[in-house]
Each structure stands twice: as C-alpha cells, then as structure tokens.
C-alpha cells in the first residue's frame, strides 16, 4: 500500500506544481495587462486549490503508512531531528507544505473578498507563487527521482 500511495503522491505533485505555476503566471499576466478577472481565471485558481488540498490528504495518508514511521517513533523527536532524512520526511516536508497550502487557501479566500480585478489577481498571484516556492523547497528530490 505504501508504494501505491507514494506513487500517487509523487505523480499528483506534478499536477499541483503545474497548476500552481499556471495559476500564478495567469494572475501576473492579468495584473500586467489590466484585464478583467473572468470565470476562466477563477477556474484555474480553483483547480490549483483543489489539487493542492487533495495532495495534502494523500500526503497525510502517506505519512501514516510510511514504513519508516516505526523508526521515527523509536528514535523519538530528538532522534528524528538529528537524522536529516527523517527530519525532512516527518517534519520539514509536511510542515512547510501545510504552510504552503494554507497560503493557497488564504490567497483564494482573499481574492473572493476583493472588489476589483487587480486586487483579485494580486491575492492569487502572490500567495500561489509563494506557496509554489515553498513546495519546491521541501520536495525530497533524491527520493522523487530515484
């Protein structure tokens, strides 16, 4: 089961990263051209939001079916923090990704309260872009491409 969930989490990540990039670039393009915020812009941002939340759920499931979880339990928090791999998998990756998804959610919520297109594009563009950078910073690249 672990391998299946890990594969799903890894492949879904490509979709999340791609959609976040598209949503951020779309927002910055809308901001630069001063065009109105359309239903298509909203759909792009919403799709990125949905994909990122599904990725979070898959990631939480993965965390609990990870065979290294027993090793982390035995090592304790001090042992996990001393081991860079375990720290990445059980602390840094989940924490930073939860923060990134919170920023995506905040950007989505703030855009709904904004009145003009410029404010909507700014809220989505900046929050999604920051979230994208955070997600990229904590991907376990060695595990992802092995």
UniProtKB/TrEMBL annotation:
The chain crosses the membrane at residues 12-32, 44-65, 85-106, 126-144. Keywords: Membrane, Transmembrane, Transmembrane helix. It comes from the Bacteria. This is 50S ribosomal protein L27. It comes from Flavobacterium zepuense.
């Amino acid at each position: 089961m672990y391998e299946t969930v890990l594969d799903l989490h890894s492949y879904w990540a490509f979709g999340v990263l791609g959609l976040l990039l598209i949503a951020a670039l779309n927002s910055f393009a809308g901001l630069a051209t001063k065009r109105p915020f359309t239903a298509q812009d909203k759909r792009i941002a919403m799709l990125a939001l949905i994909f990122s939340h599904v990725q979070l759920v898959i990631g939480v499931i993965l965390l609990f079916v990870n065979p290294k979880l027993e090793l982390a339990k035995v090592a304790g928090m001090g042992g996990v923090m001393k081991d860079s791999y375990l720290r990445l998998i059980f602390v840094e990756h989940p924490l930073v990704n939860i923060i990134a998804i919170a920023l995506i959610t905040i950007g989505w919520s703030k855009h709904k309260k904004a009145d003009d297109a410029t404010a909507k594009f700014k809220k989505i563009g900046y929050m999604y872009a920051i979230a994208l950078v955070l997600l990229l910073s904590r991907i376990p690249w060695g595990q992802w491409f092995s």
